[in-house]
Amino acid sequence: MSIKRVLGASTALTLCSAAAFAQDTTITIATVNNGDMIRMQSYTDTFTEQTGIAVEWVTLEENVLRQRVTTDITTNGGQFDIMTIGMYETPIWGANDWLIPLNDLSEDYDAEDILPAMRNGLSHDGTLYAAPFYGESSMVMYRTDLMEQAGLEMPQAPTWEFIREAAAAMDDPENDINGICLRGKAGWGEGGAFITVTGNSFGARWFDEDWTAQFDQPEWNEALTFFVNLMNDYGPEGYATNGFNENLSLFQQGKCGMWIDATVAASFVTNPTDSTVADSVGFALAPNKEGIDKRSNWLWAWALAIPAGTQKEDAAKQFIEWATSKEYIELVAANEGWANVPPGARTSLYETPEYQEVPFAAMTLESIKAADPNNPTVDPVPYVGIQFVAIPEFAGIATQVSQEFSAVYAGQQSVDEALEKAQAITTEEMEAAGY
Predict the structure, then answer these.
(1) In whole angstroms, what is the distance from residue 288 CA to residue 297 CA?
(2) Helical residues (DSSP H) of 326-414, grouped into ranges
(3) Domain residues for 394?
(4) Residues 193-222 pLDDT 10s
């Protein structure tokens, strides 16, 4: 495949001219071990052939990645030339001048094509500090065959009450089918993210308008109790250690009636090469509690950013332009089909007729548009963010809180005990931080 066909004529010329002085350049990229990132690595040789820039990958589990890149950026460690980060870290790190602004990307790159929700979430004071490789919300993925056998029909916008009814109806332990699979793994971005958006949909919030922790309020007790009962009754054994990748594997093996998680998973559960249930998957909006309008969907992007300490800024920007471009999307589509391109990042993708025929495309876009990080909860809050609170202290606090919740899932303590500890942890940390 020619350079012009893959990248477009002007971009190809830029890359070719850059190759002359980049022959000895190697950039190191830290990324998460999600499927789209693994796929990106398989195309790296194409980038290297066109630019002369070699790429070394450091691929890590989500919790480990967050720890490694946070340590590196805060200590100016210089291990990485590009980091895979998200909407929580990017504005905070950009405000601290820890990231190189991406305000000088080429005209061909067309930064204005990035979906507004993604561009806004990856910017600080109007400056883009990370480019989205893919964007996501969350939604219900379910087995259409099992739903039909149960005599039920999934609404486009289900309630939690319906989700429990459906989980009960589809649960079939004798055939190793769990009614539902959900995240319980400790980590603010793993199980912590899921229980936070579940709490939002029950009327819970992390803080009131005075930054007072709210885990001692009845809404949190109701949300956590509902989740624990649902998973204990109809979830898989050991769900306390299951995150995105573990549940993806279970669903692909036909062991889940439903899975509520990142919209990006849709391409993997419908891929017949990897999924045994690819031809019987349906999609719906993330659920809300009956009588409450707030849905349990989040907003996120896995994005590529350049730490300010890199000595290879130009090479890093070339890679980011390549990996998050329209042309990269077309490259993947040409080789693996439109269903397997990185979703949720560019407006033009959802205007592409071939992509509009992908069964989950419309629901993904609807879910992204439904997520409102400026109004994430039923009652007012002083923070921005849906499955996170956009303050520097949140990651540390939420990691601890998620560990207490996972201990409940593992049967090591009660809901009341976990919420009491969460309230104490959060209050102490916020007071120490001066809130």
Answers:
(1) 9
(2) 326-336, 353-356, 361-370, 394-409
(3) 138-297+376-432
(4) 999 999 999 999 999 999 999 999 999 999
